[in-house]
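Dear support,

I submitted the protein below through the web form. The confirmation email said the job was done, but the results page showed an empty box. After a refresh the structure appeared. I'm attaching both so you can tell me whether what I see now is the final result or a partial one.
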Amino acid sequence: MTRARSTADGRGADAPVPVQSSPFGSLRKALEGAVFPLSVEQLVHVARENGAPATLLTLLSSLPRKPFASLEVVEFSLLNHTPRVAPVEEPSSSS
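What the results page shows now:
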């Protein structure tokens, strides 16, 4: 991020950018300390041990069953993967 861009949001040039500003901030935190390659099961285990939210654990467990060589490969897979989730039934609106 450039200095001009970082001051445009009012935080100032030297203010730290919050981790949550990155869509993968929580993923990076959840997989902190992981030693790759890892299977999906191992990814979920590491993320759970690091206190990852349930939604992230669900996303990770929905990834294809293959070894992941790096955090970047996990990020790419999450961006390009449609999780297998059962459809949610809409409640009837009859009153």
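Response: this is the final, complete result; the empty box was a page-load delay. The CA atoms of residues 6 and 16 lie 9 Å apart.
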